[in-house]
Amino acid sequence: MPDSLVIVGGLLQTSSGSRRLDILVKDGLIAEIGESGSLLGRGEVIDASDALVMPGFVDIQVHFRTPGGEESEDIVTGAAGAALGGVTACVMMPNTVPTIDNVELVNDVLRLGARTPCDVRTSAAITVDRLGERLVDFPKLYASGVRVFTDDGTVVDDPVLMEGALQATANMPGAVISQHAEESTMVEGGVINEGAVSQRLGLKGRPSEAEAVIVQRDIALAAKTGGRYHVLHMSTAEATHLVRSAKAAGTRVTSEVTPQHLVLTEEDVERLGSSGKMNPPLRTGDDVAALRAGLLDKTIDAIATDHAPHSAEAKAVGLVDAPPGMLGVETMASVVWSELVVPGFLSAEQFVFLLSHSPARIADIVEHGGELQIGDPAHLTVFDPKDEWIVSASTLQSKSVNTPWPNKQLTGRVRHTICRGALVVQNGVLV
User: Fold this and answer.
1) Is the Cβ–Cβ distance between 205 and 190 less than 8 Å?
2) Is residue 65 very low, low, confident or very high in pLDDT (cuts 50, 70, 90)?
3) Using one digit for the tens of pLDDT, what is the confidence trace for 347-363?
4) Which residues does the annotation mark as catalytic?
């Protein structure tokens, strides 16, 4: 691996604008930025012609299934898929077996993640073993590097525990309490969104009100304690309205949305089968419209994938019994570009803000998502906005194949990824 890289011919695209300049990467940092052609001869040439050079994408909700679920994914395969998708940093969720709720497991994940082509971080649970009975040791986990706390996969139903978690982390810089917002009793036994499709298929639904109930309660607790609160994979118009109002009132709340909740609806479940099942479920067209509006007015702060691999065998049992979850980390940028940027709904600046800058700030990943300035760590993605390709589940990097985008033609694809100053993906291939 050469000591220096020169990214030439690209348009530097950040959340604040664009400029046609070349970049010299040396010793893990952006060493120089110069006019086109001025840095040639200073390192290995990385061709960015007709492409955008962006801060690396940051995915703050992935399930890499380590420990305990490595038959579906592991940190190595998950991070490889992330790198191919231009993701230079990600945050693993703690609903593993055993639960990531202690410093030893956090250290194990960070040790494994340090050897991958993506900067793998991890969250930790809010409650011990995600049982909703007693809180984890927040100070110890924070000292080990954890900034995101969540019982993702289950909700913290107990308001006393949730208030305690927000209070305990309120004065920890960068710490955030993140919630899978579905009230447990309301969604128990639910398979897909409660609505026309669940009625047609004769399936118990998961009502949108279950999300609103928890978001409303947690916003009130965040306002009371001064703690930071983040809504994971928000899916409904009701919750979007609640977050918008809370932000206007000055509450410390942020939210994210998945690509699938911005594009697909409950009507797609019949076509996708078990690959269309996730929690919270795909909702209605009205919800999609509300979520998209939330992106435009910054009610929704970030796009994150909820990358949730499951083995083909696990997903082959039908909607009722199949585990919820979809692949996403490798296709996130291309889906968002194709579905939202190409039609003119989002600008390139908003694309970078939602996929890089803002998620990095939410998870306090300070080395990523910057404005591409001299001296910054070199975490970069070269994205070809016109490259057309077709998603094939069998060729994605993941061990699993439960993509919600099978055979979908997309416009825009990652050409190169640079993580920690090293070229980890070149011309769409892992180095």
Assistant:
1) yes
2) very high
3) 999 999 999 999 999 99
4) 306
